[in-house]
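Quick note —
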Amino acid sequence: MAMAAADIERLIRAGIPDAQVTIRDLAGDGDHYAATVIAESFRGKSRVAQHKAVYDALQGEMGGALHALALQTGTP
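Predicted structure written out below.
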């Protein structure tokens, strides 16, 4: 079952409260998304640590209900 963009955004915002989140459905199929996550809490963290924080916020949905996510992260 596909995951809705609103659910992805909700999970990320719950796990990273200061995040500005933009989600795009890349294929129009509800399975392939791109996310841009900008958060002050990422400051000083490596790109790997930033991505891990996003994946942790997704609570194990990556690879399950969420099939593919192209991820960009950064600080404001």
